[in-house]
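Narrative of accomplishments. A recurring question from our advisory board has been how the design workflow behaves on a single, concrete structure rather than in aggregate. To address it, we present the structure tokens for one chain from the evaluation set, followed by the sequence designed for it. No filtering or post-editing was applied between the two.
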């Protein structure tokens, strides 16, 4: 046993759970999977929810916003909450809140009550992902943590792929209420297994017995700051960003509160968020990369289906099926990368992931057009997710390098917060880029369609004549031809906007590829625990 490992925590080295650690891994990963699934499964059900509750579609989008805002507020303080009441007790409490609120969401008689229950559900769900990751980190010996994180990683990156397809199938064949009911048996099983199998390590029990003071000022600034930020991200494009006084007010509130929160927590003896952990370059870089991985994962989940639905006429279910190939690839890759992480330095795997993702995105930006087939669209998705498969496990492992065991809960909360907020920002950025770049390209294309252009006059005359053969009057045929030209310009401008977006995402991944080489070296044989350089 190395002296370095001994100085970390003797309890952490000696302690092992009483039951098979893989049973614990299956239990906590099951709970995390359901939580991530529930984040995305409601997306496609919004029109059905609006219709069933007599609300507008714009109002129904608050079903997503209320959940994400509450979830984002809880994530960064989940480590503090675990220390306050004990990690196992906090995990079970989160499961119980999630279960009861899911039932209430399915029974909600109107939209205001549904929004309230979704916010409560977000509070419960916010503790599941980080605590599942922290439990795996403490349950497994260092050399097996890569494989354990791979099991958890499957839940984090596969559930957003499965969610829209499952939600669409349920709402098409049953009722939107079943998207909340269907998770109940699984969550109840996870609650029972957690009570039976999971236990807190000795060093966590020591922390819990010491007592923790509640930082009401910090909690207030966190709630206002993160809640406002989430609403800005979800509603910004819909309300024209800073053209809206509502969005501008929330953006200012988020900025002031979050900056004040960092300053306040930095100087507190017992902070609810230990922002001083970001003094470690390695921890800060790993969090930045997890932020960017969430950014890429969720933004690419939006791009392909939206392209197929808005420009090529795919149904939501068919567009969701295009993502299924990528889900299968991730399912296969995660265990392999988990094994590799015990043999290869994390930073080399991370660099490989960013390189593959950059190449895949550049390839999509070059190849995507209005003539892609279903099969080729599926392969484009596969080209994107190969890189993501190399990222989740090693970035998670790199985030724990040099982190003391007693800070594991806090590290998990921050890492998961960064991934989720990255996903929210990524979704907002790409949807805004698509709209703005489509407008730009349409202006450019329209500039070439002028009455004095011989090519345009010739094409318009030919199309008008062809339409006129169907029996329309000459004037009506001409109007139809102009309308079709406008639709063509709209489609071409939209396609070019997606190409631009893929190229920008590829450039961001290239920057992350370079940053990967600045991460600390780790000893893969020791599971990444010991920094050696």
């Amino acid at each position: 046993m190395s002296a370095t490992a001994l100085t970390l925590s003797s309890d952490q080295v000696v302690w092992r759970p009483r039951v098979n650690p893989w049973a614990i891994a299956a239990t906590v990963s099951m709970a995390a999977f359901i939580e991530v699934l529930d984040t995305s499964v409601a997306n496609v059900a919004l029109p059905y929810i609006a219709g069933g509750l007599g609300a507008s579609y714009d109002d129904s989008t608050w079903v997503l916003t209320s959940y994400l805002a509450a979830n984002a507020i809880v994530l960064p303080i989940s480590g503090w909450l675990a220390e306050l009441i004990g990690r196992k007790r906090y995990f079970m409490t989160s499961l119980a809140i999630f279960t009861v609120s899911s039932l209430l969401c399915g029974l909600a008689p109107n939209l205001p009550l549904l929004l309230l229950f979704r916010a409560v559900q977000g509070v419960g769900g916010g503790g599941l992902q980080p605590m599942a990751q922290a439990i795996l980190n403490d349950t497994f010996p260092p050399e097996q943590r890569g494989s354990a994180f791979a099991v958890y990683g499957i839940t984090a990156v596969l559930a957003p792929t499965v969610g829209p397809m499952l939600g669409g199938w349920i709402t098409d064949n049953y009722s939107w209420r079943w998207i909340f009911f269907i998770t109940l048996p699984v969550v109840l099983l996870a609650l029972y297994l957690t009570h039976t199998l999971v236990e807190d390590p000795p060093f966590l029990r020591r922390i819990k017995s010491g007592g923790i003071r509640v930082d009401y000022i910090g909690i207030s600034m966190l709630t206002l700051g993160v809640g406002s930020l989430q609403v800005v991200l979800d509603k910004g494009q819909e309300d024209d960003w800073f053209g809206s006084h509502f969005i501008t007010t929330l953006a200012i509130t988020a900025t002031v509160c979050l900056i004040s929160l960092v300053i306040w927590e930095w100087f507190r003896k017992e902070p609810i968020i230990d922002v001083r952990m970001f003094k470690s370059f390695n921890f800060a870089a790993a969090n930045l990369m997890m932020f960017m991985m969430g950014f890429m994962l969720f933004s690419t989940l939006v791009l392909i289906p939206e392209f197929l639905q808005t420009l090529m006429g795919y149904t939501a279910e068919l567009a969701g099926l295009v993502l299924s190939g990528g889900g299968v690839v991730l399912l296969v890759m995660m265990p392999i990368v988990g094994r590799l992480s015990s043999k290869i330095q994390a930073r080399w795997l991370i660099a490989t992931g960013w390189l593959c993702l950059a190449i895949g995105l550049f390839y999509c930006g070059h190849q995507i057009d209005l003539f892609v087939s279903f099969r080729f669209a599926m392969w484009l998705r596969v080209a994107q997710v190969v890189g993501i498969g190399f990222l989740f496990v090693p970035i998670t492992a790199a985030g724990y390098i040099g982190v003391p065991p007693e800070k594991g809960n806090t590290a998990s909360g921050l890492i998961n917060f960064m991934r989720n907020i990255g996903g929210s920002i990524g979704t907002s950025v790409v949807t805004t880029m698509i709209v703005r770049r489509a407008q730009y390209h349409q202006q450019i294309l329209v500039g070439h369609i002028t009455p004095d252009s011989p090519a345009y006059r010739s094409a318009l005359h030919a199309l008008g004549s062809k339409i006129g053969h169907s029996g329309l009057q000459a004037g009506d045929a001409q109007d139809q031809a102009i309308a079709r030209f406008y639709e063509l310009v709209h489609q071409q401008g939209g396609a070019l906007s997606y190409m631009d977006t893929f190229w920008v995402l590829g450039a961001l991944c290239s920057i992350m590829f370079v940053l990967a080489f600045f991460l600390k070296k780790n000893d893969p044989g020791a599971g990444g625990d010991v920094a050696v350089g």
